[in-house]
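tl;dr need the bound structure. longer version: we got a ligand (3-acetylpyridine adenine dinucleotide) that a collaborator sent over and nobodys looked at where it sits. i said id run it. heres the input, straight from their email, havent touched it
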Amino acid sequence: MTDREAKSPATSGNRPAETAALDVLIVGAGFGGLAALHRFRDEKGYSVRLIEAASGAGGVWYWNGYPGARCDVESLQYALAFSPDLTREWNWTERFAAQPEILAYIDYVVDRFDMAKDMRLETRVTSARYDAANARWKVETDRGDRYDVRYLVMATGPLSTPYTPPWPGQDEFTGQIYHTGRWPREPVDLKGKRVAIIGTGSSGVQAATAISKEAGHLFVFQRTPHHIVPAANRPLPDDEQDAVKNRFAELYAQWTATPAGMAWRSLPTDDPVVTGDKSALEVDDAERDAIFERAWNYGGTTLHRSFNDLLIDERASQFANEFIARKIATIVRDPGTAAKLVPTQYYGTKRLILETGYYEMFNRSNVTLVDMKSDPIESLTPAGIRTGKQDFEVDAIIFATGYDALTGSLGRINIRGQDDAALADVWRDGPKSHLGIMVGGFPNLFLVAGPQSPSTLANVIVANEQQVGWIADAVTYLDDHDLKAMEPEPAAQADWVKEVNARGEASIYTKGANWYWGANIEGKSPAFLCFINFAEYKAICDDIADSGYPGFKLLSGARLEQASARD
Ligand code: N01
C-alpha cells in the first residue's frame, strides 16, 4: 500500500459487508463519480454511497501511474468547477499537469468535501438488478455488500478497461508485463533493462519518452504513426492562474458553449495570433507555413485550430501532414526512422498527441523504432517478442495498446434491467441510449461519460459535470412530481442512436481506425460511440429538461402497481 492509500480514511481494508437502503449509489471515484457524490449528497441532501474498485479515488488517473503520464488538457480548465472556493484555493504548477499532481488535486477534493466517509474503496460492483415492482436497484459487490437504491449512477469511466491484443504466448514470456492503464502502485525499476513498449498513442508516447531515459534499450513498436506535436509544457505563473480565476464564471460559460467544452482563445496560455479562422487553402505556402510554425511552437492543441478546415478538407489535412513530416525530418537524424514516424492518415482521425522530447528520443542510441505495419507481431515468446521477421529479447514488455472504450467497463458488470435483460446483450450490436445517459429498459440507471455522450470528444470534466447536473435535475423532477422512475421512450432512443451514428459517419473520425467507433478492438461491433459537439448536446439536454423530459417515460407509483399487477 502506498502512503497515499494508507492515509485515505476510506481505504476499505477488511471492513465488514454492509446492507443499506439508499437514495443513490454511484459507481466509480473518478472525476464523474466525485462530482456526482457532491451534487447528490451535498447539494441535494440524498443518502449516497460511492463504490470504487481501486484503493484510492482518481479513476483513470489512479491507474495510469506510468512514467511520464500527464494531462493534455490545460490545467487551468482540467478541474472541477462545482465550487468557486475550490477553484480559488487550488493552484497548478504547470501548464499541463502531471499525473501525481492530478492525484494530489483529487485527494484534496476528497478531503475538502469530506467525501471519504461515503466512499467504499477496494470494492467492485458484481451485479445490479432492477426490481420493477418497486422501481429500485439491488446492487451487490465482491465484498458481500447489498444495496437497495432508487438511483444507480454509473461513472465507470469511458477509457477504463485496458485492452491487450490477443497475441499468443503471453503466459510464456518470462519477463515482466505491464499495461499503461494498470500501472502497478509499487515502483517499477526499468533502469538498464531491455524494454519493449507496444503502441504509440498518448500513453505510449508519454511512457516511451520517460522510459527511454533509463532503459538499457527501448524498442518502440509502432503500427500507425499518429499526429504528435509539442506540448510546450512550462511552469504556470500565479498571474496566469489569477487571470482565469478572477473571471472563472464568465470563462466557464464560454467553454461550455463550444463544441469541445474548452477554451477557445480565452486562456492566457492560448496563442493570440493563431486565430484559426482561415482555410489552409486560402493562404499561400509561406503564410500557411508561418501559421503552422507558430502553432507548433506555441504548443498544446494550437495546431489543431490553426486553420478552420484541417478536420474537414482532405487537402488541408494533407498540408498539416506535410508540415509535420518536415518538422520530424529536422529533428530525427536517421532518415529511415523519420520517414516511419510521418502520419499518412487524415489529420484528426486519431486523437492529437502532445509530446515533450518524443521525436528527439529517436536520436538516442538506446532507442529503436520497430514498424509493426510492415512486420507485425506474431507472438510473445519466453524471451520476448516475435514478429514475422525478427525475435526481440527483452526483460519487460509494456502494453500501451489502449482501451475497450466507452462500452468496455459497463459491459463487464452484470447489469440487469426490466425482464432480466442484460445490458451487455442489449448493447451487443452497439450501444443504445438516449443522450448517452439513459438506456431503454433500465429505468433509473444513469450513465456519466457513457457511450453516445460527447465526453471523450470534449473536456471530459466539463462534460461530466454537465451530465451529473442533468441527472440531478431529472431526479429532482421525479421527486417533485411524485414520480418513481424514468427511462427513454423507444422512439426517442432510436432517434438518438441514429443521430450519433449519422454525425460520426459524416465526420473525420470514421475515415480511419480508432476507438471512437470501436475499430481498435478485434470483434467489437462497429458503432460510433461519441456524440459530436458538446455545445449542441448541452443545448439538447437543457431543452429536454426545461420541457418536462419529452422522449422519456415518467412512471408514477400507480403505473408501477398496474405494471406489477399485470406481471
Ligand atoms: O491508447 P490508443 P492510449 N497491433 O488507443 C496500438 C486518453 N489518454 O492509451 O494506432 C498493433 O490511443 C495502436 O496502434 P494503431 C486519450 O483520449 C489521454 O494511448 O491502432 N498495435 C496505438 O498505437 C487517448 O486517445 C492522455 O495502429 C496495436 C496504441 O496501441 C486514449 O486515452 C494520456 C494493436 C493504442 O493507442 C487512449 O490512449 C493517455 C494491435 N493489435 C491516454 N492494438 C493524456 O491526457 C492497439 N495497438 C495525455
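gonna send this back to them w/ a short note. The first strand starts at residue 19 and ends at 27.
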